[in-house]
Write a structure and sequence with these properties.
- A hairpin with a 4-residue loop joins β1 and β2.
- This protein has a single domain, classed as Alpha-Beta Barrel (TIM Barrel), CATH 3.20.20.450.
- It has an eight-stranded mixed barrel with strand order 1-2-3-4-5-6-7-8, surrounded by four helices.
- Helices cover 41% and strands 22% of the residues.
- It is globular.
- It is an alpha/beta fold and 236 residues long.
């Protein structure tokens, strides 16, 4: 299955906070017309073609990811319907590295069991995106048994001085620990936020402070800058 799409893959680094290493990258699409990926996906959904578009974007990202550092994993965004689409296996067979499927936060809870079983069959790992912003996250975490739970960056920043946000994160983290999932905090924007999530026991992090979404050909320069600024082992 090879189909064209008017977009390019960018990759944002994911760092392991215990080893201070770049261990993976999230694949993110950037469309040639400048319209946001979410708007393109919404339009595709209205036309009954969301899964087709997601499959094309995943295929594009898998091909581009071949140029990433070989020891790193790549995470790919997908809705529940795409995760369970038989065509996805054909695309992921060409992946040359460990990969994870990142379930869009809007995916219905009814897809949980089928999604978990499909990811296990395909040999990848599963991430829940933006935990704390949509459906009952604690129950969804228990149903899906993800390998990584991503905590929304805005929610994390609100938790600095907002008791309800702090309590929500506490419940999400407790549910994640029940199923032995790692915690990834998104949206890290400065050194203070990085220090805070390390102190609070997060496992992984990503955000502009650690690297912006970047075309694959510019990844070496971005990783070299990250190593110089923050001291992260870039894996080059």
């Amino acid at each position: 299955m090879t189909r064209t799409v008017d977009a390019v893959a960018h990759f944002q680094p994911i760092v392991d906070l215990r080893s201070s290493r770049v261990v993976g990258f999230e694949a993110l699409a950037r469309f040639d017309d400048g319209v946001s990926p979410l708007d393109h996906l919404d339009a595709a959904e209205e036309g009954g073609q969301r899964e087709d578009l997601e499959l094309r974007l995943i295929e594009m990202a898998v091909e581009a990811a071949s140029a990433l550092p070989p020891s790193s994993f790549v995470t790919l965004n997908a809705s529940g319907g795409t995760v369970t689409d038989p065509l996805l296996a054909e695309v992921l067979q060409r992946a040359e590295r460990a990969w994870g499927l990142e379930l869009f936060e809007g995916s219905a809870p009814s897809a949980c069991v089928a999604v978990r079983e499909q990811v296990d069959r395909l040999g990848g790992f599963l991430l829940i995106d933006d935990a704390g912003t949509d459906f009952s996250d604690e129950e969804r975490i228990r149903q899906l048994r993800p390998d990584i739970v991503k905590i929304d960056g805005d929610l994390f920043r609100r938790s600095f001085d907002d008791t309800p946000a702090c309590e929500l994160i506490r419940r999400v983290v407790a549910a994640a620990h029940e199923v032995h999932a790692r915690i990834l905090v998104e949206g890290v924007e400065d050194a203070h936020q990085l220090e805070t999530i390390v102190a609070r026991g997060a496992d992984l992090a990503q955000g502009y402070y650690l690297g912006r979404p970047t075309p694959v050909e510019d990844i070496p320069a971005m990783l070299a800058d990250l190593h110089q600024r923050v001291g992260m082992d870039a894996g080059l």
